[in-house]
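This entry is passed on directly below:
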Amino acid sequence: MEKRVILLPDETATVALGAALAVACQQACVIYLYGNIGAGKTTLCRGFLRSLGYAGNVKSPTYTLVELYALTRWTVYHFDLYRLAHTNTEELELISILDYLDHSSLCLIEWPQYGKGILPIMDLSLTLEYQGTIRRAKAEAFNANGKRLLAALSLQQEPYS
């Protein structure tokens, strides 16, 4: 498993990381996004979607569970499973989540730990966290596609700790 830590000194850097990930996507993928509330997961998704040409509002799908973005080249599904921490994963089955993960789309999944046992293995995971006054993203690749995404990130890196 390959790993990197990417420093994110401000919101612009978080948006840029999302944009770099989108540019690197050459095939369908599943990206898990971990981090506390306010860590920058939805901000990263905004950068991702903007880079792919989406100009509308990007909001966290906390209450809808999923937002669909039908773009020119890709369909992007942005999931937020936070609410499932207080219920159960049956809700994922009710919305037929596996139908979204059909190997022809890009999936960004916030709070994936609440879909454990139902969600597929991710290509890449990003854990966003604060380190003092800045954020950092711990990125881990879980397969060849994830390794390609990780290699494409040319932002500032430090050894994984």
